Amino acid sequence: MAKRIVIPFGPQHPVLPEPIHLDLVLEDEKVVDALLSIGYVHRGLEKLVEKREFPEYVYVIERTCGICSYIHGLSYCQAIEEIMKIEIPERALFLRTMGSEYSRMHSHLLSMGCLADGMGFENLFMNLFKVRERIVDRMEASFGGRIIQGTCKVGGVRKDIDEESLGSIVTEMESIEKELKEITDVLIKDDSVKHRLRGVGMLSKEDAYELGAVGPTARGSGVKIDLRMRGYAAYDRIKFEPVLGTGGDCHSRTAVRVRELFQSADIIKQCAKKIPDGPIEVKYTGNPKGEYFSRVEQPRGEAIHYAKGNGSRFLQRFRIRTPTFANVPPLIHMLKGCDLADVPLIIISIDPCISCVER
Amino acid sequence: MNAEEQPIKNLTLEELLPNVDATHKLGYRLVQVCCTKIGENSFEITYSFDKDMKFANLRVTVGIEAELPSITGIYPGAFLYENEIRELFGVQFKGISVDYKGHLYKKKVENPYNEKKKVQ
């Protein structure tokens, strides 16, 4: 048996935008075990709910993550609205759906850009980020912020999109799709990319389900979990099918994200065409009393926001189970048996968000 | 609103593992484990599961002195939830497959989500 050595990976590493530490146990170049350490950016955001009134806590919750902040806000508002039985206007539901899909697009482009950067494919990284800029510019114009929008509120949304802008969203999205097609073809079909990603970070369908994988990590292994199918916001009025891969490797997870980009573009176009006229928020009175698990599909997968109110302005408990938290056990499983040189790519392939994990 | 059914089954500590095992055998995946402080040193631990968008929950209510059986023998991915609850609330688990022994998070306070507990 080869001599075992332990190599520390992180918390600071060129491929990691956020701190995470792994003790990699190696036999020659093969990883035989991996022990994960987190906790460098634990902020105690869940505890803060006891000191912020429930309508203003949405500002805190949106800052859980710098990427999928919109959907965090949406899910929190949804939990409160379900407890308080607040009926949201149709137009607000469509606007929330559009915001979620823009959020998914910019998150996926960021993730794929980081993957390209991790492979040393700088040109691809730049091109993906060029398209991402168009998405965040549109988010700023439509929702008021490039990354943190502050648009969702309990009872609806703060900002409407006028008819003229809705028309230009459709035209612009068609042009973005054309640009994306050219760039993402490289990610899917290029030989050197395939050579680098195929067969790396294998996760079988059974393991993905058993270990609780979610999002593109699960769907890349063929597990059909997409919480949008539950029909929250306006997803029950939109035509779409979950994107599934079969390879269970880094390439399959990337291919799922690529196809989801086009799916998100299609959902945004459907929303822009189907959005009804009407108000964008309703007034409500009272405080939340009861509990609800709000389940939504973030770019990285299923997220759960649990809220429990006792009838006061302050929630008794609020908990977030973020998708990366669920994808940690599958990640450790994928790392066992891989080559040391593949560790960075495998980590990026689950699109980790550490500030989400620790909250 | 598009509310879903969210049944919660209240259990005793002894009933927990058999029920988790039965849920696993029915093909449910573990979605999350959540701890809520409901009184002075009293906690609700809720285990959530999903199968084909069907959501189900098991709940036990325990005191700080209780030691919960780990479900990592049934759902291996539960080790993170159990380590987190132990560190943030001070609720103890027995037999966690990957035991961080209180060092999952780097924190100044021992059980930050259970304020009344004395800092060692």
What does the model show?
The complex is a heterodimer of chains A (359) and B (120). Chain A is of the alpha+beta class and 359 residues long. Chain A has one domain: Cytochrome-c3 Hydrogenase, chain B (Orthogonal Bundle), CATH 1.10.645. In chain A, helix 2 packs antiparallel against helix 3, helix 3 packs antiparallel against helix 11 and helix 5 runs antiparallel to helix 9. The N and C termini of chain A lie far apart (41 Å). The mean pLDDT of chain A is 89. Chain B has 120 residues and is an alpha/beta fold. Chain B has a single domain, classed as Beta Polymerase, domain 2 (2-Layer Sandwich), CATH 3.30.460. Chain B contains two helices and six strands, in the order E-H-E-E-E-E-H-E. Chain B has a four-stranded mixed β-sheet, covered by helices on one side. In chain B, strands 5-6 form a two-stranded parallel ribbon. The mean pLDDT of chain B is 86.
